[in-house]
Each structure stands twice: as structure tokens, then as C-alpha cells.
Design brief:
Length: 59
């Protein structure tokens, strides 16, 4: 299940990047900000998964 979560978080980050670029290209600041937020969420979730993995290896 952890690999599935990692994939979901990576997709969320990637979609956020695309949304940010779309907002930037069209001048839509709201879409751009939403994209940045989605990227940050994906990155945070990925960091949590990495921390869990490190804990499992050490523990």
C-alpha cells in the first residue's frame, strides 16, 4: 500500500506543477496559486512516506 500512496502523492505534485504552469501561462493567479498549493501538499505527503520508510528500516 505504501508504494500506491507514494505514486498518488507524486501524481498530486505533478498535477500541481502543471496547474501552476497553466495559471502562469494564462495569467490566472488563482490557478497558479492552487497549483503551488497542490505541489506543496504532494511534497509534504512524500516526505511523510520517506520518514515512515526510514523509521521502518531503523526500527
Amino acid at each position: 500500500m505504501s508504494a500506491m500512496d507514494k505514486a498518488r502523492h507524486k501524481v498530486e505534485e505533478t498535477l500541481g506543477k502543471a496547474k501552476e504552469k497553466l495559471g502562469s501561462a494564462t495569467g490566472d493567479r488563482r490557478t497558479e496559486a492552487e497549483g503551488k498549493t497542490e505541489q506543496a501538499k504532494g511534497n509534504l505527503k512524500q516526505a511523510g512516506e520517506h520518514a515512515k520508510d526510514a523509521f521502518r528500516r531503523d526500527g
